[in-house]
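Write out this protein's structure.
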Amino acid sequence: MFATASLAARIERAECTLLMELARAAAARLGRGEVVVEPIGGGVAVHTGAGSPANKLAGLGFADLPQAAELAVIEEAFALRQAPLQVEFASLGDPVIPRMLSRRGYELIGFENVLGLPLEVAQLEEVGHGAITVDRAGPEETAVWMDTVATGFLHPDTFDGPPSHESFNREAIEQIFADSLATPSFERFLARRAGIVAGGATLRIHQGVAQLVGAATLPEHRRQGVQTALLRHRLLDAARRGCDVAVVTTQPGSKSTENVQRFGFAVLYVRAILVKQPG
């Protein structure tokens, strides 16, 4: 799959709408005054609470350049909350952006991969996965789904790559998943192995882009094809509903990267992670 700036812009727009939906859920929980949602330069800056994985500025580089005054407002809002401002910049975006941010005191702390797969129903027809089944998680399974994905995230696989640029405690992970539960566009799935819950995942669809997020397998069920089953089920679901591309974001060198590349995903572009500390 060949990556273009137009495709990257489309994926980054989907990411921005995801963040804004999470921010709306957080605002309903905390009150509007406690949440930051600031559109800027075709992207958006979001802060949904202390330590949240959603606290970031995404989508820059595919529209008008942000003005210094706009950036200053966002930087101040994050500094007032004693929070670092993390910018995730796509490598297919305008290279003026990272130069601008560097001059403002942002530091490069890491990278993440954005991988994609073109979707065709004929190539994704459901195949058997032995004792593994995947179904949508019903309302009565919310607690099970939450515990499964949170536990999976808190026990990451070892991998041959750079250390992650971020880490979160269970409270922060559960809160972001709780906000996703309050957002209709997030669809949840559970995988069972021999009838026992083994993993969970989320699918979000935005204008033909299928975002594969929130996937995790319980440690005792790893290396058994659980993630492959979750991948294929969600991809087929998205293809049947008209999506033409699926995307997933991973840590370079991680087991997640290996899993999706084995399935056929290719790296479309890299996001540079630039951070400005409060004060």
